[in-house]
Amino acid sequence: QVQLVESGGGLVQAGGSLRLSCTASGTIFRLEVMGWYRQAPGTQRELVALIPIGGSITYGDSMKGRVTISRDNAKNTVSLQMNSLKPEDTAVYYCYGTRFGSSYWGQGTQVTVSS
């Protein structure tokens, strides 16, 4: 069973930076796509960034230009560097991955940006 575990969330002041990381376990295979979504209270989950193996990165509109996604295929990890954070970036950030047609989600890590 594939499990995704996030780390790196927390409280940061507006204009600050955070780096989120996610590690996939329970599989010897690399996840075909890894990425991040976020969900603020009362809103739908939205795309932050996706990075496939050997393909083009996709960034969601809400954080484009302020985030950079990267992955380490050997370790089955994905990271998200977030800069110039705004209070409206406050949300639970979820790690996401796909393998052989199945999708997997982490439990989420809270990011809170104070003004």
Show the helix and strand layout:
Layout: E1 3-7, E2 10-13, E3 18-25, E4 33-39, E5 46-52, E6 58-59, E7 67-72, E8 77-82, E9 91-99, E10 102-105, E11 109-114
Parallel strand pairs: 2-11
Antiparallel strand pairs: 1-3, 3-8, 4-5, 4-9, 5-6, 7-8, 9-10, 9-11
Describe the structure.
With 115 residues, this protein is mainly beta. It contains no helices and eleven strands. The protein has strands at residues 3-7, 10-13, 18-25, 33-39, 46-52, 58-59, 67-72, 77-82, 91-99, 102-105, 109-114. The strands form two sheets. Strands 2, 4, 5, 6, 9, 10 and 11 form a seven-stranded mixed beta sheet that branches. The chain is globular, with a radius of gyration of 13 Å. The model has no long low-confidence stretch (mean pLDDT 95).
Describe the global form: globular
- The total of helices stands at 0
- Intertermini distance: 40 Å
Helix content: under 10%
User: Radius of gyration, rounded?
Assistant: 13 Å
Number of strands: 11
pLDDT averaged over residues = 95
Low-confidence stretches: none
* Oligomer status: single chain
Strand content: over 45%
The major sheet is characterized as: 7 strands, mixed
How would you classify the helix and strand content by structural class?
mainly beta
Encode the helix/strand succession as letters. Answer: EEEEEEEEEEE
